[in-house]
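Backbones bend. We report:
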Amino acid sequence: MSEAPLRPDRLILMDHIREFARRVKLSGTAEELESFRYLERQMASCGYRTQLLFHDAYISLPGKAVVEVGGAAIGCITHSMSVSTPAEGVSAEIVHVGEGTEADFEGIDVKGRIVLVDGIATEDVAAFASARGAIGQIHVSPNEHLYEMCVSPVWGSPSQHTREQLPNTAICTIARDDGEKLRQACRAGKAPVARLTTEVDTGWRKTPILVAELFPDNRPNAPFILFSGHHDTWHYGVMDNGGANATMLEAARLLAERRDEWRRGLRICFWSGHSHGRYSGSAWYADEYWDDLERRCVAHVNVDSTGGAGADILTNSAVIDELKAVAARAVETVTGQVHRGRRHGRAADQSFWGVGIPSMFGSLSHQPPGPVKMLTALGWWWHTPHDTQEHIDPANLQRDTEIVLRVLDELLAARVLPLDYAAYAVSLKSELDGLDADLAGRMDINVLISAVNELRRRAEAVNGVAQRETDPVLAEIINDRLRQASRLLVPLNYTFGDRFHHDSALPHPAWPSLSGLRELAALPEGHADIPFFAVHARQTRNRILSVLRQACAVLALEGS
């Protein structure tokens, strides 16, 4: 990594912002493709080899919606992956289910009724309501704005096995004050009747992906860093995701000037289908190019919604354990803030954990906490028609882009990949220690704790060799060992276990691969089902042990 920092040009960044502010970019539309052509020209002008791919994606574009109560219409929107109603709509009594958690639904008969939910529409509430037989959902915004959402619990386009998981209810959102009137009526036992009429254009359509590549001279098949962000938008989407696309273009331009310092290549992907297909673009790419990604991709940096006005919190972006130090160095150098990071959620085109690719970011800069409970800290204008150029702060856009540049510069130019699997081992050890106490008397997992301790020892030895090693041949051996280790360890951290099928888009627990052990630990003492759960828990323990043993073997360097 060069000592001279890369400095983004604020004027160039804002030129891109003005271009992205010209079009609404719904997935698979002509306007979106026209904007993709702009990206293609910009990347080619910086020397990147570009390819515009087209693939079939299951896309859902919300249309007209009406909510009527007592003959009066209430302002509303419907949502991506909601169902269209018959022309006459659907009518039923409203029942209030709080925030729509699984516990909120317990003991309430919602079959054939319309549920009233406090908060922005989400895929998990849609799944709960559908499973319990509701025929409609009315979500109440936390403020006066109506937030566009995709409510599919299926990650990417559905297959014949997952399409039955799609929502089967009409779903609308209304403003806070309108929702409060309905809540009060429900609390008073009046059981108001609502009519929902929705139009949603859902089906298969061709969507684009722009792939742009640049590699060190004479190394077109070198390992590479994947740098990605979506280009489709809700409305004009100037922050989400125009800010990130501007960051990507400016980062690409500046990084290309240091190509002779790179030790690995850069592959940049602009996705469609993020907003209207539940990450259909990145999911398709992960499936279609699985073998190439598995063999050559060593890290994934995703970027979303940079440059927001008032987005001054740089301490909480998502990053996988083994890349936390990379994020922290960049954030502290640029801003002086101490980056603590957070665990990735099921979002941000993180379609590559099954492949085993370490990842970082998504949204990078966030708003300070406010009085209104929001799904994200990206500004009240997020996912509304108000996401326009006025909510971009040029200084914040330049700052966020500089952070991303520092991260990419390190990943591209570091002699040894900065993947710290000792930090990974510390995180897993903490999880196992808690489970060990909860499983006392039911299952012995000391063998797992010993294995993760060995993983930490091996990883610390690799880190030590990497810090002092100057032999380029040995450095490449270490890099390949780290790649092999990631293929084993990333899926253990972020998937339920199947590397070749995407887990759902529903919220997941930390370390989902430990679920079999957690389920056994959660049963009350003396529960009749403990022997059944123990069967699965033993199988879970064996899988984790096998992965840890393999990772230890991969990271066993001679003399370590």
